[in-house]
Write a structure and sequence with these properties.
This protein is α+β, with helices and mostly antiparallel strands. Helix content is 35%, strand content 28%. The strands form 9 sheets. The chain has an 8-stranded mixed β-sheet. A 5-stranded mixed β-sheet has the order 2-1-7-4-5, with helices on both faces. A hairpin with a 2-residue loop joins strand 12 and strand 13 (180-183). Helix 13 (403-420) packs parallel to helix 14 (441-457). The relative contact order is 0.07.
């Protein structure tokens, strides 16, 4: 039998027979490791302990102490265990597919009767019985033909369809959890008892079309979450409770920020309070971009299909575009246009006007571009996922030699914005060359190195996402962590030599010849709508004073104080503070509760004593105590506090 070389994380090597399994490797190392092993990393791939290793490999054995692999396997096995539990409880139910996602998994079932919350409790109990039985997990390779016959004999039409999609002659993998079998790529745990029985929960049921096709049967999708310990599960549930309190849709109603209605699906009706946040954020970004050397442009929202064909979007993105047909002068053929889903092709048109020189580069071009993209109705979510939105979009036209410096400059810009907006924790991911790509290997080497070096120069580490770049260039993704630990992918920087080539952009180089610029697509917020939703949830509606739509409410304690209330309100407005008067014939405690619910940062209570002393009783949102302060002093302090971070 041929020999292969295994290299371990400590650098040690072993000569072993080809076809050895990871389980055998673990047993050769120690009896203790053999008992703890759950899977292996083989040449960077996640390997089942039962799979044979047939070539030289870098290998590391995983145990339940390794969070990433352990959680992946726990959640994957739970998907199978749940499907088994469902079929044992209701033998006529047809199983389909059940992948791992986010913090758990889901599995789709074909069942005539809808699953109820009570059913989920019964399924959970059955799953724990399976886990506690500690039944072995086994795997085999089957031929495509054997698998089709197996599923046809068992009357599993969805599995038959999946197997038919596998190319002729290709073997597939079968897994058994005890006596229950499923088609799966793996890997999986060694036995069901390795799944923690007290650290998972079935959360809800939703409808889902088979393979996402609305012309196919509607199935029932059961969702679950799982963690390594009950403590982690409890922490997750606490986070969900906190997230529900912070839901931007709930707070949007309480703060009177926006609404949405069926006549305009996926689009936002901004109310005065919400639009104040929007314009305040936009003004801040505009000042920041100008200070960083950007020129601002504005481009059309409706553009003829010819441009989208030239850019490649018509071929590759048309299903997400809103098409607009116009009968020009009652012509026989209508002109076909589209609402722009992104701004980049239009920015190249601005760049192409007039001859550009190398002296003009880098050219940083920004736009608060209104875009429209078709999103399925089921994917829409408040102002976080919409069909009409505005990007804080910009494109940097530069040479390849300028990529590193421009990227480092952008990261510093992005870091300042995130810090100003209250997001101190964020990470960078570098997506590298995919299997199918254009350009030379040397060019990819240079550009990937430029992005990595820029991160280091800016003082930040980064995570590699192998093969996740676009076919024309690598990119950076910036992911924020909010106040309750949720992650949001927001900022991006994408290197693109492709679009300038397609749209014939050029500049005159030092040699007097024409050259193609590189285009850096970059965004910090992503979209104003989504980012405002994030801000609302991150701050639980208690926005920093400079962004709060109503900064101060001046409330009368008695009606005789109405005149002074109006005087104070006017003085605040003259100082540039967004202030309102509340003269309603209501008790002051009622007014305080109402404006606190509306997340007004400051409430000034005014009665006869305040009139005599030319003071106000100041109550800050979230504080129970009040303080009496001279009017002039409090206005001066608020004027300074209400400035945006870049103006302080």
């Amino acid at each position: 039998m041929s020999q292969i070389t295994l290299t371990f994380p400590d650098g040690n090597q072993q000569q072993v027979d080809a076809g050895i399994t990871a389980a055998e490797v673990a047993a050769n190392i120690s009896k203790s490791l053999s008992k703890k092993a759950i899977s292996a990393q083989v040449n960077g791939a996640h390997y089942d302990l039962q799979w044979p290793i047939t070539q030289d490999a870098q290998i590391a054995i995983n145990t339940l102490a390794d969070d990433g692999p352990a959680l992946e396997l726990i959640r994957h096995d739970l998907a199978h265990i749940m499907a088994r539990a469902v079929q044992e409880l209701w033998p006529d139910v047809k199983v389909t597919i059940g992948p791992v996602r986010d913090n758990g998994w889901f599995y789709d079932f074909d069942r005539a009767e809808p699953f109820t919350p009570e059913d989920l409790t019964v399924i959970e109990k059955k799953m724990r019985d399976i886990i506690n039985a500690r039944e072995p997990v086994k795997t085999e390779l089957w031929s495509r033909e054997d698998a089709i016959k197996f599923y046809e004999d068992r009357n599993e039409p969805f599995k038959v369809e999946l197997v038919h999609k596998i190319p002729q002659g290709q073997d597939l993998r079968m897994y058994w959890h005890g006596d229950w079998q499923d088609l799966c790529r793996g890997p999986h745990l060694v036995h069901t008892g390795q799944v923690p029985a007290d650290a998972f929960k079935l959360t809800h049921v939703a409808g889902a079309y088979w393979l996402g096709d609305s012309t196919r049967p509607m199935l029932q999708r059961i969702y679950g979450v799982a963690f390594k310990t009950k403590k982690d599960l409890n922490a997750y549930n606490t986070m969900l409770e906190e997230a529900a309190k912070r839901d931007h849709r709930k707070l949007g109603r309480e703060m009177q920020l926006f609404h949405m209605q069926e006549e305009a699906p996926g689009q936002i009706f901004w109310h005065p309070n919400g639009w104040s946040i929007y314009t305040g954020l936009q003004d801040y970004m505009r000042r920041m971009q100008r200070a960083d050397g950007y020129v601002e442009v504005n481009t059309p929202q409706v553009v003829n299909r010819k441009l989208w064909e030239a850019s490649g979007h018509w071929e590759n993105y048309q299903e997400n575009m809103f098409i607009v047909e116009v009968d020009e002068d009652h012509a026989r053929e209508k002109t076909v246009n589209a609402l722009k889903p992104m701004n980049c092709p239009c920015h190249v048109q601005v760049f192409n006007q007039g001859l550009k020189s190398y002296r003009d580069l880098p050219l940083r071009m920004a736009e608060f571009g209104s875009c429209a993209r078709y999103e399925p109705s089921g994917a829409l979510h408040g102002i976080m996922r919409v069909r009409g939105f505005t990007q804080d979009d910009a494109h940097i036209f530069c040479t390849e030699d300028q990529i590193e410096a421009e990227t480092a400059k952008f990261i510093a810009f992005l870091a300042k914005v995130y810090d100003d907006l209250g997001f101190e924790n964020w990470t960078i991911k570098l997506s590298t060359r995919p299997e199918k790509r254009i350009g030379s290997e040397e060019s990819w080497d240079r550009v990937e190195a430029a992005l990595g070096n820029a991160c280091k120069a800016a003082g930040y580490s980064y995570e590699i996402q192998e093969g996740e770049g676009a076919f024309y260039g690598p990119k950076l993704e910036f992911t924020l962590t909010d106040a309750i630990g949720r992650e949001w992918q927001c900022g991006t920087l994408q290197v693109d030599p492709n679009l300038p080539e397609r749209l014939d952009a050029s500049f005159i180089g030092t040699d007097g010849a024409r050259h193609r610029p590189v285009m850096l697509h970059r965004a910090v917020l992503g979209s104003f709508e989504r980012f405002i939703g994030m801000l609302i949830e991150n701050y639980a509606g208690k926005l920093p004073l400079w962004l709060a739509p109503r900064q101060v409410v001046v409330a009368s304690i008695v009606s005789d104080a109405d005149g002074y209330v109006l005087e104070v309100t006017e003085a605040l407005k003259k100082a540039g503070i967004r202030a309102e008067a509340d003269l309603r014939n209501e008790k002051i405690n009622y007014k305080v509760r109402e404006h606190s619910l509306g997340k007004v940062p400051y409430i000034f209570a005014v009665g006869m004593k305040e009139i005599e002393e030319r003071t106000v009783s100041v109550r800050r949102l979230g504080e129970n105590r009040t303080s009496v302060q001279p009017l002039d002093e409090v206005i001066s302090a608020l004027k300074a506090e209400s400035l945006a971070p870049d103006q302080q």
